[in-house]
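Course assignment 3, question 2. Fill in each field.
Student: A.L.
Task: Predict the tertiary structure for the chain below.
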Amino acid sequence: MSTRPPLPFDGYGIRCARPAESGAIASLLARAFADDPVMTWMIPDAADRERRIARYFRLAQRQQRPRAGGVRVAATGDGRLLAAALWSGPGRWKPSALRELAALPHYARAFGLRGLPRAGEVDNAMHEAHPRTPHWYLPSVGTDPGLQGTGVGTALLRQQLAACDRLGQPAYLESSKASNVPFYERLGFRVTGELRLPEGGPVIWPMWRDAGPADEPVTGDPLVI
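Answer field:
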């Protein structure tokens, strides 16, 4: 018997994001990550944090959009965004050096002079630990805080994970919250190590998911759009 709270609407579906939704997606992810340990370490000023996180996620989407299906959302039929995920396909997780260089001024505006070195520490730690085996990479996923625990985020991720299983391809992510680790474990991920950030910074948990049986049924909330 499900203990999830009821949804305050009739249904939703999973689809690729539309270009005009970039700002709304950035705002949704900023709300979802407002208390994230890594984000609060990189952006210690609480008064300005959500605006800066939104600026970062606008940039992150620009890095993803050249890739087909790189930004996906759970949304109602009337366009209300409920959750968003950024995905990179095998061999596409790392932007080119040229794109990274071009993005540096945008990162500086997002994190500020104090936060930019810390953001660099996070980036370096994650790049060094990133697996070389071809895989699908999930750098970010977030559900609107008022809808967390309703199964919307699970449904959003299961859509791509089912595709990974059909293709026989693994998936990878980093969890920046200890409380999120069991959520990802229920989706088939396992912790592969710990990344401890300097200066007493938080811990990041790399997680890997092997492809499951291609004919395994996909459970979760119905997709009605």
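Instructor remarks: Strands lie at 13-16, 71-75, 81-88, 136-143, 171-175, 190-191, 195-196, 203-209. The longest strand covers residues 81-88.
Grade: pending
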